[in-house]
Design brief:
β1 and β2 form a beta hairpin. The longest helix is centred in the middle third of the chain and has 18 residues. The chain has eleven helices and twelve strands. By secondary structure, it is α+β, with helices and mostly antiparallel strands.
C-alpha cells in the first residue's frame, strides 16, 4: 500500500498482518461436524451451505472514517446508505441476491436525532437494494467511542451451483465497468488529510460543480438491482468485483489463474484529481487506494459483451467495456 496512506495514519501492512493472525486463530474452531462453509478464499462474501444446493452468502462492513466528515458537517442522513452499499455490493459478488441486513451503531451517548438521521439513510439504502433491516443493535460506549460508528452484516441466498467466484474467467473475456458515485466509503483518512484546510461549503477552483463537502458525502452506489437482473439473464456472468480499496486490483480476488488489462478505463472524476494534487499522491498510489471512477466490474465472454452492456447500460448509461482478461496470471495492467 502507498506511502501517502501510511503518512495519513493507515498502516496497511500492519492491517494485513493483523488479519492473518485473526484468520489463524479462527482456523482453530472445532465444530464437531463437517464444515458447511463453501471454500471461497479471498472472495468478497462467505457462503455457508444450509440445504441441498442452497447457500447463505454473508458479508459485514462499515462506513469507516467517512463518518467523521459526516459528523463534522452535521449530515448523517446518508451514511446509512453507505453502510448498506458496502455490504450488499459484496454479497452480490458471489452471485447471491441480498435479502436482509442487521445494523450495529456504536455511539458515545444515545441521541435520538443522530439515530433517526442514520435510520433515514439505512431505510433509503435498504429500499435501493431491495432488502429488509429486521433488527440491529445500539451500543452506548462513552468510554470507548467518541461520536458514532455504523456497521452492518448482510445475508443473501444463492444456489450452490450458481455461485460466481470468477474461476471460469478466461483470457479474452471482456471486463465491463460500472461508474462509481464518488469516493464511496474508502480512503477517507487520506482524503481528509489531503483536503484539510479547504472550505467544505465551497467548490475549489469551480472544478467539482458543487460544494466540496457535498461531493465527499455522496453516498456509495448500490449495484444490486442491475447485477441481479444480469444474473437472471442469459448472459454468462463469469466474475463480479466490487471495486473498493485496492482499485481494479480487486479483480485479482476472483478465483481464476488469469490477469487483467484495463485498456479503456472509465473517466476519473475531478474529486480524485483534487485529492492527488493536494495530497501529493502519485497516480499509482491513487489507484491503490481509491476506485478512481469505477465502482464495480463484471467479467463476461466477449460474445456476451453487447448483451451485458444493454442490461447494465439501462441502469448506468456510462457503463462500458474497460478491458479484457489476459493470460498474465496475477497481474493487472493499466
Amino acid at each position: 500500500m502507498s506511502d501517502a496512506y501510511a503518512r495519513s495514519g493507515v498502516d496497511q501492512g500492519a492491517a494485513d498482518t493483523a488479519v492473518a493472525a485473526l484468520v489463524r486463530a479462527l482456523g482453530k474452531i472445532e465444530l464437531g461436524r463437517p464444515s458447511a462453509q463453501v471454500p471461497l478464499p479471498g472472495h468478497y462474501a462467505s457462503v455457508v451451505e444450509v440445504a441441498p444446493n442452497l447457500g447463505i452468502a454473508l458479508s459485514t462492513d462499515g462506513v469507516g472514517t467517512k463518518l467523521m466528515l459526516a459528523e463534522a458537517l452535521g449530515k448523517l442522513d446518508t451514511v446509512g446508505i453507505d453502510c448498506v452499499a458496502m455490504n450488499v455490493n459484496d454479497v452480490i459478488c458471489v452471485g447471491a441476491e441480498p435479502l436482509a441486513m442487521l445494523d450495529y451503531i456504536a455511539i458515545d451517548k444515545a441521541d435520538p436525532e443522530i439515530c433517526e438521521a442514520i435510520g433515514v439513510g439505512l431505510a433509503r439504502g435498504a429500499t435501493l437494494a431491495g432488502i429488509e433491516i429486521p433488527g440491529g443493535e445500539l451500543a452506548q460506549l462513552g468510554e470507548m467511542v467518541r461520536g458514532v460508528d455504523v456497521s452492518g452484516a448482510c445475508f443473501g441466498t444463492v444456489a450452490l451451483d450458481a455461485i460466481v467466484d470468477g474461476r471460469r474467467a478466461a483470457p479474452g473475456d471482456s471486463i465491463i465497468g460500472l461508474p462509481s458515485s464518488g469516493l464511496h466509503s474508502n480512503g477517507y483518512t487520506l482524503a481528509r488529510a489531503a483536503l484539510d484546510g479547504l472550505a467544505m461549503d465551497e467548490d475549489p477552483g469551480g472544478r467539482l460543480g458543487r460544494p466540496l463537502g457535498e461531493a465527499l458525502l455522496e453516498p456509495t452506489e448500490i449495484y444490486v438491482k442491475p447485477i441481479v437482473e444480469l444474473l437472471r439473464s442469459e448472459v454468462d456472468v463469469r466474475g463480479l468485483a466490487h471495486i473498493t480499496s485496492g482499485g481494479v486490483n480487486n479483480l485479482l480476488r476472483l478465483a481464476a489463474p488469469v490477469g487483467y488489462e484495463i485498456d479503456a478505463p472509465l473517466p476519473v472524476p475531478p474529486l480524485f484529481d483534487l485529492i492527488a494534487e493536494r495530497g501529493d499522491v502519485s497516480g499509482e498510489e491513487m489507484h491503490e487506494i481509491f476506485n478512481m471512477g469505477c465502482g464495480f466490474a463484471v467479467v463476461v465472454p466477449e460474445n456476451d459483451e453487447a448483451r451485458a452492456l444493454a442490461i447494465l447500460g439501462a441502469h448506468y448509461p456510462a457503463a462500458a467495456r474497460i478491458g479484457r482478461v489476459t493470460d498474465d496470471a496475477g497481474h493487472v495492467a493499466r
